[in-house]
Amino acid sequence: MAPGDYGNKAVPTYIAAEAETTPLPKITVPEAPPPPNSGRGLGDLPMRVVYRVIAGAVAVVVVGTVATVVLLNRDDAASRVQAADIPAGVQPTAMPTTGESTGESTGPTSGPTSGPTAEALAATAGPDGSTPSPQSSAQSSAQSSPAASGSPSGARSAMDAALSDPRVPTLTTSTRKLRALPGRTTTTRGLVKDQRSGVAFPRFAKVWKAARGNPFASRQMLPAAKGSRFRGMLVSCPVPIPVQESLRDTAFLAARWTLNHQPSGATITWSASQPLKVSKRDGWLLGYRVNYTIKGKKRTSSAALALLDVPDKKPGLVFISIPDSQKKYWKDIYKVMSSLHVLPQENED
């Protein structure tokens, strides 16, 4: 038996332990890749980040709530201010705009108009040509608006107001003609042809001077009287008040309107009331004295107006008034009223 050959004998255990062995391969399990588009969950965030996000959201909600409350309170305050500016029982109305009239002849207009017309503004112009106040212009515009003049109820209410006015006595049914007052008639030079009103009347020379027509269609004035701002005036315009069923009633309303050009508190005493026939057209003439007090002294003016029917237009109004401080020109009143004409219209032969 060769050395080291043990044959079939058992090998000692210590020898077997020393035998060379081959190391086993290392087995590793590969880590599974994360699923695509997977984000970190709320649980993966640090708690301080979560607290900051919640605090920011709460702050946004609080700011939005405060801003909403402030805006609502501001709107409520504005509503209360607007409501306080409007007196109880008064309905707010739109304020219309107006244009300045040039006093030139204009053709008929179509459609409704807004704001005071030249005729409405004429109701508040002072006898010295002063500009009417916005309040009086608005009141006059309401009385002479197309709606009021075209509505039977508006015309009726205007007549009711005039009949109840203590400054204007009721007209009698009897005819009373205008008489010439003493004095000397001023020289005339032709006619004033008021195309807008459709009437013509004498143009005085010398002391009477043509003045700016607006808001009237035409105007002539005497020089300013010493110690008084009221002076003689001769004007024309389409009648600036609601037209009634008869020329007589319309003239009555027009006479009341002329008190806008007299001192405050003036009253009327009738001196004439008569029908007219001018250029084959109907008309009505009223003469009257205007009584008033200035600085404790009783004064008067002599006045007259003529209302003439004009085709396709409102009646034309010619009005003249002269205070007692210029009574030497009172005879000019008769001259005007006895020399009236209705201008021919284009559609007339």
TrEMBL record:
Q: Where are the transmembrane segments?
A: 49-72
Residue spans of biased composition, Low complexity class: 96-117, 129-158
Is Transmembrane helix among the key words of this record? Answer: yes
Keywords, alphabetical: Membrane, Transmembrane, Transmembrane helix
- Annotated region Disordered: where? 88-178
Its name, as the record gives it, is: Uncharacterized protein
